[in-house]
């Protein structure tokens, strides 16, 4: 199949939906991945994108690059990459098997922080916009000095500038060995254990601290992807691995709570977990990347705290608050919205 036309049918359907929305005076919210929906006004029409055709995949295994229909799930993509002994090291902290476009649009980041952020693996996008029609941003090569990183415009904005129809990503070779260690104890004990892991080897695929409630214990999950020699060294400092990584239990979301994702400076990691009261939270110790749930009022307070301490945070699901943008960002956002969605079709 010609890779230039992987998502042609989807793109035609989206352009038709845009025209109908303008004629009827409606606004559209794209619904492409479960568990990431916001509480929307009843007048906002949700538009499901459906599923991808598994055959719509174009791979360059020698360059570790793959282009796929954006509706493809991460699990489906990795199953198809197995024949090339490659994978996209991504797993959402709550265990959802997101679509490629869904995770990128919602700003969901990867659990396996030792491989870098998911956004750093996005080389190019094909996007359907009300203002410019179908556009291509980025490139299909790893080394690209073409100018501004335009794919970033569509990351974390939930389809409010355009609908992603095709994604080009950098993938990785499958690791020869995957092992994990699990411990439980107090928050302070597990923080010390996490630091001990960093002294034994670096970088880990992930070192995750999870606390499901204030009264309960904190769980440390340390996962290593590498060679046997390193695993033998880790066993000397951490005992034998506890179980295969395939047995990890994701942090299941709780109904009625708002889901937040973001990151804080590493020096603030312990304080963030201490302040997180009212819902579960998981934090990647090497990077300060966090993912968790809170009641609406506490979620709003936590967002303010994170931003006051040089962190970044976004709402992944739950209610929408009236959050004015800083003046410097408001003008830039208005210009982008007027260019890519001049009639305000997309929510």
Assembly type: single chain
Q: Overall 3D geometry?
A: globular
| Uncertain ranges | none
Main beta sheet: 7 strands, antiparallel
* SS elements, strand count: 16
Topology order in helix (H) and strand (E) letters: HEEEEHEHEEEEEHEEHEHEEHEH
Q: Termini separation (Å)?
A: 33 Å
Number of helices: 8
Mean pLDDT: 85
Q: Which structural class do the helices and strands define? A: alpha+beta
**What Rg, in angstroms, do the CA atoms define?**
21 Å
Question: Numbering strands along the chain, what is their spatial order in the largest sheet?
Answer: 10-12-11-14-15-13-16
In percent terms, what proportion of residues is strand?
Answer: 25-35%
Helix content: 25-40%
Question: Can you walk through the features of this model?
Answer:
The chain has about 350 residues and is of the alpha+beta class. The protein is built from 8 helices and 16 strands. It has a 7-stranded antiparallel β-sheet with strand order 10-12-11-14-15-13-16. The protein has a 5-stranded antiparallel β-sheet with strand order 3-4-8-6-7. The protein has a two-stranded parallel ribbon with strand order 1-2. The radius of gyration is 21 Å and the shape is globular.
């Amino acid at each position: 199949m010609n890779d230039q036309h992987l998502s042609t049918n989807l793109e035609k359907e989206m352009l038709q939906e845009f025209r109908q929305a303008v004629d009827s005076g409606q606004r559209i919210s794209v619904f492409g991945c479960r568990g990431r929906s916001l509480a929307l006004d009843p007048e906002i029409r949700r538009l499901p994108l459906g599923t991808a055709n598994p055959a719509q995949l174009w791979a360059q295994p020698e360059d570790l690059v793959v282009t796929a229909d954006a509706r493809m799930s991460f699990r489906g993509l990795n199953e198809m990459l197995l024949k090339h002994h490659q994978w996209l090291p991504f797993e959402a902290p709550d265990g959802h098997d997101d679509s490629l476009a869904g995770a990128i649009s919602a700003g969901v980041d990867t659990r396996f922080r030792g491989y870098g952020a998911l956004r750093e693996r996005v080389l190019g996008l094909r996007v359907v916009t009300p203002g410019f029609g179908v556009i291509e941003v980025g490139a299909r090569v790893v080394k690209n000095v073409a100018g501004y990183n335009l794919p970033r415009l569509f990351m974390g904005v939930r389809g409010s500038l355009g609908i992603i129809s095709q994604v080009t990503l950098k993938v990785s070779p499958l690791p020869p060995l995957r092992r994990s260690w699990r411990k439980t104890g107090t928050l302070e004990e597990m923080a010390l254990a996490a630091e001990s892991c960093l002294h034994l080897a670096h970088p880990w695929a992930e070192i995750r601290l999870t606390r499901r409630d204030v009264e309960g214990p904190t769980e440390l999950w340390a996962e290593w992807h590498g060679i046997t020699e390193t695993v033998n060294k880790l066993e000397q400092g951490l005992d034998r691995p506890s179980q295969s990584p395939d047995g990890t239990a994701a942090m299941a979301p709780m109904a009625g709570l708002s889901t937040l994702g973001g990151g804080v400076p590493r020096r603030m990691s312990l304080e963030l977990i201490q302040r997180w009261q009212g819902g579960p939270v998981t934090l990647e110790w090497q990077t300060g990347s966090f993912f968790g749930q809170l009641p609406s009022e506490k979620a709003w307070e936590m967002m303010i705290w994170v931003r006051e301490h040089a962190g970044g945070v976004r709402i992944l699901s739950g209610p929408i608050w009236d959050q004015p943008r800083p003046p410097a960002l408001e003008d830039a956002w208005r210009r982008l919205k007027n260019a890519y969605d001049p009639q305000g079709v997309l929510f």
